[in-house]
Amino acid sequence: MGSSSSSMSDSRSTGVVYTKKLYFDPNADSPEGRDYWITDSELRETLSELVDVTERIIEVRYYKHPLGSWQLMDNVLHHAFIVFETNAWWWSIEKNDEGVTIQRSKDFDSVCHRYRRTKRKTSIGKGVEMVKKASGSATVMELINHIWRKNYLNQEYNFLTYNCQHFADLLYEFI
């Protein structure tokens, strides 16, 4: 696995350790394969070595799904994440109480309907739902630089004030 040199902090609202790291899976459609844990200081260099940073983002989509199987409605309480398409790949990016996750795949379902190679949470009558979509205007490198400049990896996750929905909103607007 990747580096483990960053500090950890406790999330007071959930008790989960927020890693301040980015989890990157460059082949999310493969049953096997290497994944990476990347710190903020390693972000730009490591991703530049692993991906074609000149790829232009063609389209960006905003998705949501229930937080758990117990949920009947997801109007307010839901997990939000971004899926974007380049000429060669499908990507997803999201934040939760563990950190930021980026997945890349040739297969759309592997990034939209799976999180770290496991099926995303659904409930009765509620699954993964696209909320909106738009044309992309950034490159992968511009997105990586934006994440680094805005210090998104080090910003603590907070269920009320800075959560997955806030993160997805910020990235959707940027892309």
TrEMBL record:
A GO biological-process term: proteolysis
One Pfam match: Peptidase_C97
Keyword Hydrolase: yes
Keywords for the protein's UniProt record, in alphabetical order: Hydrolase, Protease
GO molecular function: peptidase activity
Entry-linked InterPro entries: PPPDE_dom (IPR008580), PPPDE_sf (IPR042266)
Domain spans labelled PPPDE: 60-174
Stated family: Belongs to the DeSI family.
Protein name: PPPDE domain-containing protein
Organism: Daphnia magna
